[in-house]
Amino acid sequence: MKKIFITATNTDIGKTYTTLKLLQLYAKKGYKVGAIKPIETGVKDTPVDGMKLLTLQKILNPDLEFLDIDDVVLVKYSQPAAPYIANNQKETNLDMIDRAIKKFKKYCDMLFIEGAGGLYVPINKDYFMIDFIESLHVDKVVLVTHCNLGCINDTLLSQKALVSKGLSPKIIFNCRDFESTKNFEKTSKPFFEDIGIDIITTTNLEKIYL
Predict the structure, then answer these.
(1) 37 catalytic, yes or no?
(2) What are phi and psi of 121, to 5 degrees?
(3) pLDDT tens across 32-52, in order?
């Protein structure tokens, strides 16, 4: 089973949206797909992002009909903050996440693992999301970034952080509306092309190879 980690330059960039689109794309290619969001914060009653992942993967992969939300979101906190903050500066035990991932091996060719926030969101005091990604020994990392002013800085900082850990990410640009798309095409896209970064957006995901 291939493990794909979906991270982003910050929170509210479009990780869940991108993960859902990747699930659909690779299911159409004939893969048995699954998805988890190991940690979700800001959970009042039901994990919103986790429920989207649960619903879609059960449609796309009938072998996963047995799943419930606790199989998809392993750690839930009510406060909409970094896990370490949302857990009142207490350590989060991550042992159950490894066990959860192993459960999918029998049923999936590809497992998409969606992170929480950006790379330096603290899970524990001295343990960040980027450390968690490294510990999972994933096959690929997808970095979701935005198309607004500042995307060059945000994207390159996150890319550099991942490369420093030996993780070379596939970059996906999530341009949310016509205005941001137009500005991106005019300003930032030429620079990214000049430095050799493939322009893959959430509207042309068929160009990505995982």
Answers:
(1) yes
(2) -70, 125
(3) 999 999 999 999 999 999 999
Q: How far apart are CA 140 and CA 73, in angstroms?
A: 21
| DSSP assignment of 68-115 | -HHHH--EEESSSS-HHHHTTT-PPP-HHHHHHHHHHTTT-SEEEEE-
Cα distance between residue 180 and residue 183, in whole Å: 5
Residue 33: both structure tokens together = 């797909």
Q: Which amino acid is at 24?
A: Q
Domain segments of the chain as ranges: 2-207
Q: Which of 3, 15, 32, 37 is catalytic?
A: 37
- Identify the weakest region by mean pLDDT among 60-64, 177-181, 186-190: 177-181
What fold does the segment set 2-207 form as a domain?
Rossmann fold (3.40.50)
Pull the structure tokens for residue 139: 């096959």
Burial 180-198, CB ≥16 within 10 A → b, else e = bbebbeeebbeebeeeeee
Is residue 162 classed as helix, strand or coil in its secondary structure?
Answer: helix
**Rounded distance, CA 132 to CA 114, Å?**
12
